[in-house]
Amino acid sequence: MGLNLPIQDPILQFTLLATMALLVQLTVKRFHLPGLIGLILGGMAIGPGAFGILPREPVAELLGQVGLVYIMFQAGVEVDLGVVKQHKTEVTAFGLLSFGVPAVLTLSAALLLQFSWSGALLLAAAFSSHTLVAYPVVQNMNLLGRRPVVTAVGGTLLTDTLALAMLAIVIQTVGGDNEGAWGWLAPLVLLVGLVVVAFAIVPRLARRLFAASVTSRAEKALFVLVVVLLMASLTEVSGTEAILGAFLAGLCLNQPLKNRAELHEHLGFVGRMIFIPFFFVDTGMRIDLSVFTGDTRVWGLTAVAIAVVIVGKSVAVWITGWFYDYSRMDRLLMVGLTTPQAAATLAVTVTASELGAFDSLVVDVVILVILISCLGGPLLCGYAGRQFADQRHDEPSDKDRPQHADESRQETSEEPKKDLS
Questions:
Q1: CB neighbourhood size of 52 (10 A)
Q2: Does residue 294 register a pLDDT over 80?
Q3: What are phi and psi of 397, to 5 degrees?
Q4: Domain coverage including residue 175
Q5: Residue 352: which CATH number?
């Protein structure tokens, strides 16, 4: 009996997705490329828009959504809150610039292309956001402690919140909602309330549970997963996006998990093994290959959109980097982190399409922008990371550095103390 395509059995779907994820990541590493590049291309190949081997529903879509939530959660966990507090002005400045500059450029370009005001504003909301798709690359290269990376990650919360607030305001205007002029404010008020409650309850509850000797590591990890999914669900119900709730969950669990190294590593392993790879596969499965051979206008609009995104995010990075004295390579790393368009961009696009503000041509353009930016951002981060690694390799080690005589005597006098301890 032949195999019917697309495969409908959930177990077979999961088996094929897991096998492909393993083979792709093992293969692309031979070419020194980030594994997520191969996962996106592999997802495109097996998805409905190419060979049609698998449908997105139910397995790939569900695991892809959880994977994106997990990426944002890890970003919240890994951010150094001490550094964020110490440099809160640059985090805030970058968050505002990373939203404002792309929004203004997108709005201007859309109006020049004869978009309506509502369509132009929705497109600006889509492309002013960004998703930390390249975060796993930066994490694997041990660059999370760099101040520019902390600025980029910390500023993401402000950037995406402003983009989604802009979406809410335009929806209220376009949709003709009768809730009044301030109806768009309700989701933001609910989000602020959720932030206050979460920071008051979650860290205390986590510390008590993590300190309990009767609670196993598996149960502690399950508690973390429940918190992440619950926060993501509550933010979505309140009218914003799940990614903000996941990032908030990471911030709430930041300090409790920093004091539990084994649990921290365990959660990172689960994400790298299951959730995160499936997000990139699902992103690839969204791509319809007919887009590449369809209306030629798609490519012209895509080129304009990509240029607006790259220029907008780069200008925000370069202004912040110039003012706070970041190196050129640090700025490239920030551009790679903040250029990719994914979660919030998709949310805005789907909503605008349902309202009739985006036609199929614009939707195809947005999908192409997501694909290109999700491929380009990690590659740029990988390049910057390798440059940093080469710099560390070229620097002389401590034993190669000449020592002054008084330093040598001090080390000699301290040596017996080390032995006695």
A1: 12
A2: no
A3: -75, 170
A4: 69-394
A5: 1.20.1530.20
